[in-house]
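FIELD: query
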Amino acid sequence: MQGNSKTGKRSHINYEGVPYTSTLLARNYSLVGEKLIVEVNIDDISTLKAYLSDGQELDYLKAKGGGEENRIL
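FIELD: result
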């Protein structure tokens, strides 16, 4: 997981070069650097299901575009 609270870069993961996040994940910097398990529906990759490394369900993550929308203003 990536993100940086000092620069305002919201927490997210990258899948196939696209950032994915959720409201819960975007503001949770405690998981930055952690590995997540991701469930992918290849018929619809607009949303991924994320789990913590111990298998606990985390959240559904939605694909985001690049640029300023991934920054906290």
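FIELD: remark
The longest helix spans residues 23-26.
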